[in-house]
Structures are given as structure tokens and as C-alpha cells.
Amino acid sequence: MARITSQIFSKGAPFVLAALAFASVALTGKAPAAVAAAKPETAAAAAPTPLPSPDDLLADIRDRFRSHRPPPPYETYEIIRKQSTNYGYPDYANSYTDFVWYRSQDHDALRRRISELGDVGPMTFDRPIFNAATDPGPPTADVFEPAPLHTYPPSFVPTPEASQPPIIVTVKVHAEFDYRVTSVQREGDELHLTLVPRRDPQRNRLRELWVDAKTLELRKLVATDTLFVEGGPEYPVLFTIDFTMYEGIPIITHIHGVVYGGYDGDGKIVDYDYKDLVFPASLPAWYFNAREYAQHLSEAPDPPGY
Known about the structure:
Layout: H1 2-11, H2 14-28, H3 32-46, H4 54-66, E1 74-83, E2 96-103, E3 109-114, E4 124-126, E5 179-187, E6 190-197, E7 206-212, E8 218-228, E9 234-246, E10 249-259, E11 269-278
Antiparallel strand pairs: 1-2, 1-11, 2-3, 3-4, 5-6, 6-7, 7-8, 8-9, 9-10, 10-11
């Protein structure tokens, strides 16, 4: 295109050049040199805002996620687990649907299993958490929190999550000590970050993040986890976790897990779906004390619709 334009001007008379220059002044009110000088300003104004350094970007994403915390004090939700046998068929024995009443301050939960026929099972006590010998959760889990140092029994009571203190002054920390960002890619309206733990890879579980490029809200991540085989060894798991926003809070909607490390038993591929999340204002205290279940059998809560 540029070469064709050059040929036209080389064959024209000086009158043509003068006429074009006059037309430029008449239409823009500026001489051609002034128009040319204005172009860099227009280009600069349209340039996209540069991203912060990779480590600062990761810190901003984590701060954005935690700006929604602590989570509501109570949650109720349905968790649907589906897995396959080592032959690739549905593993009905280890696929199930549970309804959960959860208290966030100590991760205590009451669970009831819902059968395929619609029967509701007995009350059981649980503490949903990642990287432990139970189903992952809750939907509002802090995915930036390191995995626990040890596998704790159900009697263990974790430290409650603190409320955010009032902001007095904002300090920008130019380091992300848990992870090193190895790649930042723009994929449509998302940013895709690849991470490598700086230390303790079994506890610092994040490997990839996808966030909204404008808001930095979390949309998807890849993280490690652990399969605990009863009476047997532990195997590494890779979770792909999907998020959405619900009542202004990022929540987990789906988890796809793949067990590796030489594992070849049932449940090598497992999926979790989280549905019907509600944040009730309160729940009875006895829901979170298994010793009181026998005294409240007639008051056992039923899942919605059952």
C-alpha cells in the first residue's frame, strides 16, 4: 500500500503537492507537520495500561481474592461427587450426593447423604477442607491458604479465620514469597499465570491461575491435592477448580481431579459439583457438636426439597 502511494506522488507536479497541503490545512486547521506531530499523542493515549511485574500481579490477585474474606459465618450447600472405576465405568459405590451445613469459624459441618432413591441418611460430623482425608470444600475456601502441615483427626479444631482489620494505610509489598510466576499470558478477557512454589511444594499447592483481566477476580485455577487411601499410601492429585461470583464472593462451582503418581485404582478421575449454596443468618449450635446428635434425632435437618 505504501509503495503504490509513493509512485503517485513521484509522478505528480508540484501543484499537486501544494493542493494537497492546502486541503490538509483547510480540513484540519493545522499544517501537515502539525497533524503528523499529533499522531504520536493519539497512539500514546490508546496504548493499553501495562501490567505490573509478575510478582506484584500475583500479590494483587491474592489481595483481590482475600478482600472478600472472611466468608459468611454459615453456609449450606449440596456437593455431588462422581468418579469412575479403574476400568472407566461409573463407580456408583463411591459416587454420592451430600448436603452440608457448615460453620466457617472452625470448619465444623453436619452432613447427610442423599441416596439415588431420595432417602436421606443419618447425621454425620465433618470438617470440609482441601488436602485432607475428606471431600474438599467449602465453596468459599481460601485457595491461597497453604495446605495443613499434618493430616488432622476430626477432633482437631483449627484457628478461626480473622476478620479484616480497618485499613489505616496501604503499603505495596513488592514480593510474593510463596510462589514464583514463570509466565503471564493474555487469553481473551483473562490473564493466565503459571506458578512454581519457591519452597514447600506440598503445602503451596497452586500451579496455574486464570483471572478476569480487568477486575482480577479468580475464574479458574490448577492446584495439587492428595488422595488418602485408607490403610495405604498417599497419592498426588491435580485439581482444576472453576469459580463464579455469588453475592459478591468468589465461590467454587466445580472441581475436576486426576490422581497420578502411579495410582491405578478406582477414582483415578473424580469430579465434584457444588450446588444450591445459601448463606443463612444462623444455624443451631448443636449441628456442629456430634455428641449432641443423638439428643436431636427428631430435629435432624433435611436437605431442601426432601
